[in-house]
Amino acid sequence: MTAAILNWREIDAVLDELDLAGCFIRDVRQPAHDRLVFELYGPRHGRFWMLAVLGGRYVRLHRVAQRPRQLGDAQRFVAFMRAHVRAARIRAASQVAGERIVKLEVSRGEHALLIWIRLWTNAGNCIVTEPGGTILDALFRRPGRGEVSGGKFHPERDAGALPAPRDRRRDASVRPFGDPEASYNVRVERTFAALEADAEAQRGTRLAEAARATAERRARRLVMRLRRECEAASSHEQLQHLGNLLLANLARIEPGAHQVVVDDYQTGGSTAIELAPDKPPAENARHYFERAKRARRRLHGARDRLAQAERELAAARAGDPPQAAAHTGAPDPASRTAARGAGGAPAPAGVRQFASGGFTLLVGRSAAQNDAALRAARGNDWWFHCRDFPGAHVFVRQRGSGSVPLETLLDAASLAVFFSKARSSGQADVYYTQVKYLRRPGARGRGDRAPAGRVIPMRERNLFIKLQPERIDRLLSQRP
Known about the structure:
By secondary structure, this protein is of the alpha+beta class. The chain is built from ten helices and 19 strands. A six-stranded antiparallel beta sheet has the order 12-13-15-14-16-19. A hairpin with a 5-residue loop joins strand 8 (125-129) and strand 9 (135-138). Helix 3 (184-233) runs antiparallel to helix 5 and helix 4 runs antiparallel to helix 5. The longest helix has 50 residues, at 184-233.
């Protein structure tokens, strides 16, 4: 099977064919959370596009035939690139010897910058530095590696001290990648497009099987529950019989009695019947008749639902999950939205809930909790996360169409810092946006499934937060 990475010799082959020296950077786009596309113009090639994939299984760099679309509004790093390197000229393009790190020396007027494209499977990144190595910005900010604004990045100077990528091969060779009549970049693009299409098909198969298995489990549990419900409701005949016995023996029931023993004409023996001492004898009989009536209704409904559930279980086992999910009693998205109303649904299991100014704040402290809180959120709810540090996702549930007060925004942002790795420093930047502007990475055309809880914010805003003990104490003490 073809390896899903480009080795350092193949990267050199790609760069030699691209001949980037002298090209101008006309634009930078981000078609996915881990992909950048440089729109370039050069005297040799005219206008063309260069794709850098910096995450997942298919890290690579090569030319592409068509301009990929932008991932919604321009993200933070793309906005930075457009402000600093758009219309810049590439003076030189090279690779740090054997390290799979591409160096682009660019200049715009008298202003010179370095763009480093690190094509490592486990740590791909695009980092922009000053000529002296000071980091201006990075696609993936990684404080643990020092890859944040103001940090230092010297891959050429530190090449010997850098941890080697796991897939480094000093004896690597340039693979042909298909039809030798086509250019090398074209062959690379076609090969990896086929790999991604195959991975996407396999992922679709896995998801379909997972959906089928989930539908089968749900249908099986529903069948078992409805069978138990039918067994419990089948007592309606006995309840009706006890009511008849009470009517036939009203004269024998003493006021305030808890029980009466009567002759049972069905069994030929005697039967003890429980009574409500505060009710008269006739009322006790009516109570048994009412219970029998309710049990009869439950039994009829349960039998109908059981028949439907058994059909759904059979359909799920046959591999038809949409049919299995159609009538299992789970509300559709529209009914869930209507049921939540202005107050919102209960917090998902494990998600912490706080109160602020009449608003409900949800805090997920793990990937699974963040994912559950996101699924429970509505489009107009607000999402908060500490910038550059791993931590909790905080959601503010919107109430009606009004704006969220500043104090509530500060409370949510403070919780995002408090429940993050920035807590020890006591201050951090927090970015926030509405849930409808969150995008899940890897949703289109990729073979890798994004980790649970990971999202990309669009139209983000920023708050700088210094933790205030009195604010945190108030929030922790006012959990609803």
